[in-house]
Design a protein that fits this description.
Helix content is 27%, strand content 39%. With 151 residues, the protein is an alpha+beta fold.
């Protein structure tokens, strides 16, 4: 019986110590949004080939619920100098109800939009020739905002 117990201990002991060693040689990584332990030798491969990161995964915050009382608004407009030296909106696209249309004064429209909480997200400028060879300079604006929902 002692001999049998000794044989069992000799067979089990190496696997216990090997298992204990392998647990100490593990590194926590964030793999595809899940925390896993991998061998230290495999960490570089996970980082380089999978885009994993060392340590715990970052906390994922849920998207905020949209406010039913507010809607997002978008304004795209092109302003251009005209013959009488004023700068007018020559083309526009906007969310319904904002009243941004071609022919309005560009500066007045921009100030109204900024005063109502819109922010300028992009400004680009350039030039183009019309059919008569006349050079026109223009500025394109992209504005984003929010406004109360009207019923």
């Amino acid at each position: 019986m002692k001999k049998m117990l000794s044989i069992i201990i000799l067979l089990v002991l190496p696997s216990v110590s090997l298992n204990a060693f392998s647990q100490n040689n593990k590194v926590l990584i964030c793999h595809k949004g899940k925390e896993v332990s991998v061998a230290a030798a495999a960490v570089a491969t996970h980082i380089n080939q999978h885009g994993d990161t060392r340590g715990e995964c970052p906390e994922v915050r849920p998207e905020p619920e949209p406010d039913p009382e507010v809607r997002a608004t978008v304004v795209m407009m092109r302003c251009e100098g005209v013959a009488d030296n004023s700068v007018l909106i020559v083309s526009a696209s906007s969310s319904e109800g904002l009243g941004v249309v071609a022919g309005l004064d560009c500066a007045i429209t921009l100030s109204r939009l900024l005063n109502t909480g819109h922010t300028i997200r992009s400004i680009t400028s350039g030039s183009a020739e019309d059919d008569g060879g006349m050079l026109h300079f223009y500025t394109d604006y992209l504005l984003l905002g929010k406004e109360p929902v009207r019923e």
